[in-house]
């Protein structure tokens, strides 16, 4: 199309709860994606669009401003407004990144500045500026033991290691406990970091079936024997992506089955601090075979790339330390020092409580806006929406991206292709509750299929 575009892309504007200016942007984005508008097409003047739509000029001006921000259009003085040749900008609202929300009433940047300043005054510069490869200093390991004591009794320091985030410690466990080509059994939908780690290290994954209480012990036995697996990976508390909390009875059944099969258990536990009470950790139920990993990044801030690991015994820690030296070398001293200081002083617990309260408030917003069928827990950072053939997650992800939203489809979490389809929504990355509500209302419109019929709220 050359010259000024026609207005077919605006007719009709989709009905729904979103403001009119955003519906204009949606129509523009959809037309650009479908090819009805091509790079270089000129749009009519804003006043003409306002007159044809029966809205005031300010509404169209807001729409054009947002469209420019998304790199959908560009304006040239004296020539008009044109469709841009580049790709649209990344989504303006991220519902895909699973991070803790900024806690209300606390300024994390201020706490970080104050904490680092105090740490530099109290600590030896040589200690903070030197290499110290291995499982961490005695003081750091003691702080880790204190942080992990919520999972049970205070743990011996010689069974604790410190690492630069959960992924680094998970890598150390896999490298120390498995060989290239070995199979790790896990849920059919599992943490994407595990999928990436298995691929990078030449390990294989086998998916186990689940029900509404979590992994099925009988299927675990069948899959583990079929693949001669040596390691079982579980994320039993606020499971990623389904937000499931495996109840105590099922945890005990899984621990017994792991013992029967001689499996090493890797318990990935980033979210337990977000609960005021949770079932006993597998570390407490099967300490002789469990490697328990807990990061602070998911309950405080991604800034704190500090995680703690508990191994069955001190000999296993030595193997973990060797794997850390061969991969990440050590946990960064300054960041780890701050994390451990916060754990010792109780500030880490205070921040976590504030994050928990904010997560609860955001879950309430989601329940008020979204249709029934979303699985979550009261203070989880994410929700899961099983699609069960009604819609395809890949299509919904594309539609959401055109609306300026990022969401996570099932294939990011799938070990076994075609087992389940669904969407994971993360609630923490939105800059405010208001922005989160706007994004969820936009998603609601997508789920309604543009029919104008809004699904019932949860």
TrEMBL record:
InterPro entries: Aminotransferase_I/II_large, HTH_trans_reg/aminotransferase, PyrdxlP-dep_Trfase, PyrdxlP-dep_Trfase_major, PyrdxlP-dep_Trfase_small, Tscrpt_reg_HTH_GntR, WH-like_DNA-bd_sf, WH_DNA-bd_sf. Keywords: Aminotransferase, DNA-binding, Pyridoxal phosphate, Transcription, Transcription regulation, Transferase. Residues 18-86 form the HTH gntR-type domain. Transmembrane segments: none annotated. GO terms for molecular function: transaminase activity. PANTHER family: HTH-TYPE TRANSCRIPTIONAL REGULATORY PROTEIN GABR. In the C-terminal section; belongs to the class-I pyridoxal-phosphate-dependent aminotransferase family. This is PLP-dependent aminotransferase family protein. It comes from Mesorhizobium album.
